[in-house]
Amino acid sequence: MSGWGVSLLQGLVITIEISVGGYLTGLVIGGLVAWAKLRGPRWLVALANGYSTICRAVPEVLLILILYYAGQQGLNALMAWLGYGTLGIGGFFAAITVLGVVNGAYTSEILRGAVLALPKGQIEAARAYGMHGFGLFRRVILPLMIPFAFAGLTNLWMTMLKDSALIFVVGYNELTFTAVQAAASTRMYFPFLLLCGAIYYALTQFSNIFIKMFERHIRRWTPKLG
């Protein structure tokens, strides 16, 4: 394995970066889509539901290929129609965007379900005290919905760590792609692929430490029901 240690480390860093970026992008997209489903007009609700249905029905590898290649072609065609030159999209930005779009569909359902599970009486009481808009969301809705959404969102993070390897199909040089390159170059498939799997396992265990810390934190101020 001599000579590939630095490359594997660089692949690991890229995997973490695109996982974090894709997850945060998915949270933003999922939040907007969840809002559209709950508060939007009918046409926007239908559009949001169509987006979620497609992303959950089509295999993620196929979605990544479509968004990565067709998305870039479509964007460049739009730029050409507007009279601008070809827009070069970096692989790193494209990877984060693709993973965020796919992850956003699942995030939207988790957030929508968390909002629907909130005790209606507490929200009505907050409104009776004059709380509206962002203040109502920040002080009442968000603290109440976090316990309902926590398990689903943490599972999505674990899924994101694994889904980051799917970027391998478009030739982006993350951990899995680097491990396969190393294995093919040295003909040491079992050691390199086993090491790659062990690194992903270590990442999930390391993530679990922070997840449990955060869970203990939110449980301290979460009232027990029943």
From TrEMBL:
The keyword Endoplasmic reticulum is annotated on this UniProt entry: no
Span of domain ABC transmembrane type-1: 12-211
InterPro entries: AA_ABC_transptr_permease_3TM, ABC_transp_permease_HisMQ, MetI-like, MetI-like_sf
Membrane-spanning intervals of the chain: 12-36, 43-69, 81-102, 140-158, 188-211
Topology relative to the membrane: Multi-pass membrane protein
Keywords assigned: Cell inner membrane, Cell membrane, Membrane, Transmembrane, Transmembrane helix, Transport
CDD domains according to UniProt: TM_PBP2 (cd06261)
SUPFAM superfamilies assigned to the protein according to its UniProt record, in alphabetical order: MetI-like
Main location class: membrane
A Pfam family annotated for this UniProt entry: BPD_transp_1
Compartments reported by the entry: Cell inner membrane; Cell membrane
PANTHER family: CATIONIC AMINO ACID TRANSPORTER, MEMBRANE COMPONENT
Protein family membership: Belongs to the binding-protein-dependent transport system permease family. HisMQ subfamily.
Protein name: ABC transporter permease subunit
Top-level taxonomy: Bacteria, Pseudomonadati, Pseudomonadota, Alphaproteobacteria, Hyphomicrobiales
